[in-house]
UniProtKB/TrEMBL annotation:
Record domain DUF3291: where: 87-118
Signal peptide start-end: 1-21
Protein name in the entry: DUF3291 domain-containing protein
Classification of source organism: Bacteria, Pseudomonadati, Spirochaetota, Spirochaetia, Leptospirales
Annotated SUPFAM superfamilies: Dimeric alpha+beta barrel
Length: 156
């Protein structure tokens, strides 16, 4: 019986940390940038801990969808992926940009600002990271993204 209890606890712990991610999708406009493997790009990572009411969480995910749709049209956008815990409350985004200006234009764009305002009640905590990588290193593994967020990210 002890072994069964141990296995059940281990399995529960493992399942509670399971996450699924969308494949990294490159922008349709990527060919216009003439990227080389050693080209420097900007990666932006976000981790949020989601809480709030069902309505708050629903609004949050609706806004995530609207922002994802808007990304396609953003100048300097190179690609993105999103990841979410299956049974937990954490979610992550990874976006890649040609430069800081392109990322800043996105952050202050109407759709993203709307998402930040309307989705905020569902966010218990957010952690953010920006850094430069070589294009050939993109996409980074989610384990690396979590490490960067943990060690170098800023939390709000």
């Amino acid at each position: 019986m002890k072994e069964f209890s141990f296995l059940l606890v281990a399995l529960t712990s493992w399942i509670s940390n399971c996450a699924f991610a969308s494949p990294f999708q490159k922008s349709a406009q990527i060919n216009q940038f003439n990227l080389q493997p050693d080209s420097e790009v900007l990666i932006a990572l976000t981790e949020v801990d989601i809480a709030g009411t069902n309505a708050d969480r629903s609004t949050f995910w609706d806004r995530v969808s609207s922002v994802r749709n808007d990304l396609k049209n953003r100048p300097g956008f190179l690609g993105a992926s999103i990841r979410k815990e299956v049974f937990g409350s954490r979610a992550w985004t990874m976006t890649v940009w040609t430069n800081e200006e392109a990322l800043e234009d996105f952050v202050y764009a109407k759709e993203h600002e709307r998402a930040m305002k309307e989705g905020a009640p569902a966010v218990r905590k957010g952690t953010f990271y920006r850094g430069k990588k070589k294009w050939k290193e993109i996409p980074i593994a989610w384990e690396e993204a979590e490490r960067l967020l943990s060690e170098e990210g800023r939390t709000e």
